[in-house]
Amino acid sequence: MFFGWQVSVGGAASCCDTGTVQETSGVRAPRQARSQRTLERVLEAGAEVFAAGGYDGFTIAEVCRLASSSTGAVYTRFENKDALVRAVHDHIMADMVRVVAALYAPSPAWEALTTPQLIEHAVRLLADHFRERSDMVRAVVLRAAVDSVMRASGAAAIRRMADAFTARLLDRAADYPHADPEAAVRGVFGMVFEAISWDVAFGAEFREAGALGAPPDERMPAVARMVLLTAAE
Predict the structure, then answer these.
(1) What is the pLDDT of residues 5-49, one digit of tens each?
(2) 97 close to 12: Cβ distance less than 8 angstroms
(3) Long-range contacts: 203-208, Cβ < 8 Å, 24+?
C-alpha cells in the first residue's frame, strides 16, 4: 500500500475503459461533438493546472483561462471542483494506460533482446514513463492518498498497466524458474511501481537525506532480473 493507495496487480481491471467521462461521478457527459471538444480542452488544461500545483493549487478559474472556457460552461458540466479534479485524474490515467499499452505492444525489437535485456528494458521503460510525467504523477499520488474515489479509479488504471507489462515479460516465462511465472512478473511490476511512485513523489528529498540511495531507474532493473531469474526458495 502506498499512501493508502492499494497496489493490486493480481488480475485485469474490470472496467473496459478507465478514464472516460461517462464513468466519472459528478460529470455530465457531452452529447455533441463541439461539446466534446470543449470538454477535451478543459481536461487538458486541468491536467496542466493539476500537475503544476496539485489539488491545493487547482482552481477552476485557471483551468477556464487555459482552456478559453467560461466558468459557467465548466459548472454546467461539473458539479464542483472535486468532480473536475477527478475527471482530470481519470483523463490523465487513461492517457497513461494508452501509452503503456503501446510501449509494451509486441514488436520484433522485443524479440531481439535476450531475457535479461528484456527485463531491464521493460523496467526502464516503466521508470521513464513515470519520470517524464513526474509533476503529474506526484500530484496524482498525493491526492489519491486522501481521495478514495480517485484511489479506486487509479487502481483500475494501474492494473491495466500491469497487464501490459506482464504480457510482454511472460513471453519469456519459460526462462523464469518459478512455479507461477505470472505471479512473479506481477510482483515485479508492483515492486517497481511502488519504488518509482515514491521516488517521483519524494525522491530528491529522500535521496539527499540518504534514505533511498540511487533512483529506481538505476537500481530496479538489476533487482527485477534477480527476482525473475532466481528460483524461489
Answers:
(1) 444 455 533 333 444 554 555 666 656 666 678 899 999 999 999
(2) no
(3) none
Q: List the grid coordinates of 117.
A: 535485456
Dihedral sign, Cα of residue 108, residue 114, residue 115, residue 116: negative
Q: What element of type H or E holds 186?
A: helix 181-208
Reading the block at residue 158, the C-alpha cell is 494501474
Q: pLDDT tens-digit profile of 149-168?
A: 999 999 999 999 999 999 99
Which cell goes with 95?
492517457
**Of 139, 149, 5, whose CA–CA distance to 79 is shortest?**
149
Give CA–CA dist 119/96, Å, rounded: 20
Cell of 207: 535521496
- What is the C-alpha R_g of the chain? 19
pTM higher than the cut 0.90: no
**Which domains are assigned to the chain?**
17-88 (1.10.10.60), 104-233 (no CATH)
